[in-house]
Each structure stands twice: as C-alpha cells, then as structure tokens.
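Sync notes, pocket subgroup
Present: LS, DG
LS reminded everyone that the earlier model was apo-only. Rerun requested with iron/sulfur cluster included. Inputs:
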Amino acid sequence: MPPLLRVSDLRTYYVGFRGTRVVKAVDGVSFTLEPGETFGLVGESGCGKTTTCHSIVRLLAPSASIVSGSIELDGDDLVKKSQAEMRRIRGRRIATILQDPMASLDPLFSIGQQVAEPAYYHQSLRGQPLRQRVKELLTAVRIPSAERRMKDFPHQMSGGMRQRIVGAIAQAGGPRIIIADEPTTNLDVTIQLQYLNLLKELQRASGVALIFVTHNLGIVAKMCDKVAVMYAGKIVEMQSVRGLFYRPRHPYTRALLDSIPKLGVKEPLYGIPGQPPDLSDLPAGCSFHPRCRQAMDRCRIEDPWRHDMGDDASVRCWLPIEEAAARG
Ligand code: SF4
C-alpha cells in the first residue's frame, strides 16, 4: 500500500531579481509519512525545514518555486494541482499550525467563527451541528467554558490558549496530516509540555499524521516516531527516533546531540563551529565539510550520495559509505 504522503526528490529554489541569485532552500528532499505517524524535521535555522513544509501545502513566497520532484498525497501529486484545487486540499486533507498563533488568527473575527470556518467549508456543517462541533473542538483543546468563550476575540486569550485554538482550527476540517512548524517556540516551558501532551492526545483520538518541525531535539525525542535531520537544504540523516539518539551516523547529527546540555556534566557546552552555509553559494563537496570534525580530502571535492541503511533509514556522508564499501 502506498504511504499517506510521499515526497520525492523535491527541489524548491528562491530566485533573486533577474535570476541573479538562486537559493537552493530545498535540494532533493525525499521522505514518506504513514497514517498516524509523527515525522520530525530538525536542523538549524535556514536549513530548509519550513520551505519543505510550505512546498507541501504550496504556500510559497512569490520568489520561490518547486523546480522538480513530486509530493504525493494518497497517490495524488500536489505539485500538479492548481491553487484553486489546493484551496480545497488545505484544511481538509492537510492543515498547518504555525509558530506564531497571532499570525494565523484574524483579530477581527471571534474564535468561534474562526474554528467554525474549516468545518463549514470542508465538513459542510451548518447551524446547530456546526455550533456543537466548534464547542467540541474548543473543549478538546481545553478552552474552559468553551460555549461562552466562542464569542471572544484572539486578543482576549493568553498565548497558550491562542496556540490551542490554532490547534482546534487545524483539526476542524478533519485533515489526515497536520504540519506543526515550531508550534511551541513562543510558549513558556511549562505550557510547552502541556501543549505537546495535548497534541499527542488529539493525534491518538483522530489518527492524524503529524509533521513536526523543530530545532529542539528534546521535543523530537518526546513527539516523533521518525526524524530527518536537514542541513543546507538536504536531508543528511533519516532514522527512527531511537536509532538517531542511540546510533547517530552523520557527524552533523552527532554535533547537534553533543550540543544538548547534560544534567550533572559541568564541562563547557559543545558548539558547532562556524555558520550554516549561504544557500546561494554552497561550498564544493559536502556542504558540511567546513564545520565537520571528521572531514577528509574527498569531502571537499565530492558531495556524498544518499546511502540507504534499510528500514527507511539513510545518511549522506562518506564515512558510512566507505565503511560499507570496506565491509564489501
Ligand atoms: Fe563530514 Fe565528510 Fe561526512 Fe561531510 S561527508 S559529514 S565532511 S565526514
């Protein structure tokens, strides 16, 4: 059976004025997502996580375009859809939760109206059944006195409540996939945990698949089944969460794990030297080589290919490729 979502060799580039500068934000990304699965996309800012998500829902900036690849949802290629067709898909089959809830909520409409909208358009609910559905969704995301608070506006809610309301809106159209792009970044630590637990609960109840974008590996460990580490527009390692934490294969993944503070260890924190590369002027060979502790001569000349490690796991690095070749 085909996966729920199959992204194959996706390339999304930003092109500057008169084509003078081409930024390869997403450069050959491939992964699959199964129903009910949580897939984590991690990496430093600017590595292409958000552009990958925006490509999936086809909400890209005017300067960006998908130059090749496919995004199959239940076998249906979203790259070939018109924007009118995508409007029927967004909300009903794929929904998004953004980092800043105020960017998703309209200050001029009550929260009841905003939660009702996807259920009205995508589930064809009207009148009392629609009102009942809005109440259920707000109750599910723990908005107290849901019926009374439907009339309130976003500015009358706390930051945590606003993010939970965005979660209710994402659920309202009955999607099969929710893309959550750094949804807890603006929340206090205690509220973050409550929100993550709530997302997991909603996922168990509805069976929705989640694509979870974050730079926080602690959140990945808590939330995800499978994780892809992105660097310079490419997935450099993909594994089960267990595999990634117990046997990371890519030097960048190992460096990210070494950067996590450890309880009781007083040594100075490890910081990855240097900066992520300029995506319009990538270094030759492996893009990570200027920062890699294990770079070899070959790394400065040749870009490693994607090495399949079985069980949907892969890595882009010469070290495991050469180890595998040595084993024969
Ligand atoms: Fe480091 Fe070379 Fe592997 Fe790139 S290919 S991550 S530079 S060892």
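DG: The mean pLDDT is 92.
LS: The first helix runs from residue 49 to 56.
Action: DG to write up.
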